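user: can you give me the structure for this one chain? tokens are fine.
assistant: on it. calling the predictor now.
[tool input]
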Amino acid sequence: QRLVAGIGNIWRSEALWDARVSPWRDDADDDEIRAVLAAAHDGMTASVAGARRPRNVYRRAGRACRRCGTPIRAAGLRTAYWCPECQKGGTEPKA
């Protein structure tokens, strides 16, 4: 929140998946953060230009990850969607 705000759940979930960073990580390094922000930028820019990219994790809980086939998970007060196989690390909240 100190550096980036207002991306929203769709772009947050999709950008984290693109960069293979778990939404529960609190120790991402600078390169990982740059990758997440670049993925969010690319997705939002494409959307503004009218290109619709398929959703890889957002609102796909229980469905197979498009990258590895593991079921997508969803959790949290502001629902986060992620692949527990492709996006490892951090501690997911208890339901």
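assistant: here you go. Residues 30-48 form the longest helix (19 residues). The helical segments are 9-19, 30-48.
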